[in-house]
Design a protein that fits this description.
The chain has 101 residues and is mainly α. Helix content is 44%, strand content 6%. The protein has five helices and two strands, in the order αααβαβα. Strands 1-2 form a two-stranded parallel sheet. α4 links the parallel β1 and β2. The two termini are 26 Å apart.
């Protein structure tokens, strides 16, 4: 979503195309870097809390893919909406289909 503003301009940033945007390739790489850190740091993770925004949930799934830990999406962890499409999440039913419990 911020990538859209940089790459395509502010007007494109307001497009509904970016509603609950997916991670960019850079975001996926950064999440994979977190995953590597989690493995090498031998962190004792008991629960992963994420925002219900798709990009946050994708980040958590990639970053903790090597761990068998429960995930929970918490509305209170979500960015505050500033009126931009990227700040709005999709309905729970859609999110649950993509990220089953």
């Amino acid at each position: 979503s911020n990538s859209a503003a940089r790459l395509k301009g502010k007007e494109q940033y307001k497009s509904t195309e970016w509603l609950d945007a997916r991670l960019t390739d850079l975001g996926k790489k950064q999440a994979a870097d977190i995953s590597q850190f989690v493995l090498t740091a031998e962190l004792q993770v008991e629960l992963v809390l994420v925002s219900p925004l798709r990009r946050a949930t994708e980040t958590g799934c990639i970053a903790f893919a090597s761990r068998s830990v429960p995930f929970a999406a918490c509305e209170l962890l979500r960015e505050r909406a500033h009126g931009n499409p990227c700040d709005r999440r999709r309905p729970r039913s859609e999110l649950h289909r993509e990220f089953p419990a």
